[in-house]
């Protein structure tokens, strides 16, 4: 039982951290208020330890983290809380006052300070506060890893496929039995409203059915199937059997020992399309692939064919970090795999257009929007935060400091500018962490990048002032207009690569 943080705050911490730092696969929580570390063998795999360190000395906190590392716990992190309270009420830094206020029966705490403290939980998955009134230490017991125990897992996402899936399942089951390939069949029912699951059980009783009771999208369904798989290789195939299962042999041959992923393609010279799509769908498909290649940097002629073979390690890596959960997931996971150094080969396959497709026109629009999001989402969000950050900077300088303290001399203006810059920088850090990149990043790195870019920007502007002359206002204005977007992009790249360590 944590003595100073009430149940509401703890539940807020958990719901936030499950979307960020410790992940959705958390399996149980253990609250601790003493620095003792339980033996790993006694803790359920995937469980999270949560220490409240208000009564810990600095040495005890350090010793606790070190002991957790030695015992084999993962994702160990110390998160400060009470950052805003420490600024608003500095007296809370005194231990006696802090303990009195944080007692669960304190009305002052519940009605005055608790809402401020609770707001921090919204930022905890993303923001590492540099100080606070106290901290919590989180550590996660390693989850059980499903070891491969068969040659192949076949993952089939299905949404309202009761009329088409039976024939394809029977053909798949028969093919692998005849070829004596150790295989498990996984069908992911993506929130179907028909009797897809019953049809699967009747057709292939030994099939593993993963039920998603709410429709989450094709990409999310494939990911859940891969998580449940046990095969050394994983074949992803569509429920309608548009690509015959016999094409599996082509993928295996093409991959050999040189490639980690084989993707079926309808658009290579040796591809065999026996029943073609309508002219309008062909045109849309070709235009779509051209746009995908242009915006993602993928060199493949067909990323959207639903017949793909993965080595287990490549599949787990590609799908765990996916950002697009519906029909546009293919170029998302292929881009992630390519950036991760996995080798991909495009293989010509036989393909038949099938009646009864569940793909709607709105899904095509969603794929395009997903592509835009994948390519430009961070940049667009960063731009919005940048605009808001500029407004904060100017508002503090010209609407707060000058009206309160007067215009002052040059030295005072310099202090005003420095103060407003720091406040705006903290604002930028909080919102870039929680809104733009939605990832944890250290503030000192963020501040360092900001300062270096600021110094470089001011130095560049000063250089042009000396070259052009301070009285040539038109050219100086043009120079400044050119510097602003360059500064914006350098900041963006610096934050993305160095602070949040995002490579895609």
How would you describe this structure to a colleague?
α8 packs across α11, α11 packs across α12 and α13 runs antiparallel to α14. With 504 residues, the protein is α/β, with parallel strands linked by helices. It has 3 domains: 134 residues, no CATH class; 210 residues, Spore Coat Polysaccharide Biosynthesis Protein SpsA, Chain A (Alpha-Beta Complex), CATH 3.90.550; 126 residues. The protein starts with 6 loop residues before the first helix and ends in a 5-residue tail after the last helix. It is built from 16 helices and 15 strands. The N terminus is likely disordered. The strands form 4 sheets. Strands 8-7-6-9-12-10-13 form a 7-stranded mixed β-sheet, sandwiched between helices. The chain has a 4-stranded mixed β-sheet with strand order 1-2-5-3, with helices on one face. Strands 4-15 form a two-stranded parallel sheet. 51% of the residues lie in helices and 15% in strands.
* Residue windows where pLDDT falls under 50 for at least 5 positions: 1-8, 18-26
Note the overall shape.
globular
Radius of gyration: 28 Å
User: How much strand content do the residues show?
Assistant: 15-25%
Number of strands: 15
CATH H level, superfamily name of the largest domain: Spore Coat Polysaccharide Biosynthesis Protein SpsA, Chain A
CATH class of the largest domain: Alpha Beta
Q: End-to-end span in angstroms?
A: 41 Å
Structural class: alpha/beta
- Integer count of domains: 3
CATH architecture of the largest domain: Alpha-Beta Complex
Strand arrangement, major sheet = 8-7-6-9-12-10-13
Helix content: 40-55%
The average pLDDT score comes to 79
Note the main sheet. Answer: 7 strands, mixed
Under CATH, the topology of the largest domain is which?
Spore Coat Polysaccharide Biosynthesis Protein SpsA, Chain A
Count of helical stretches: 16
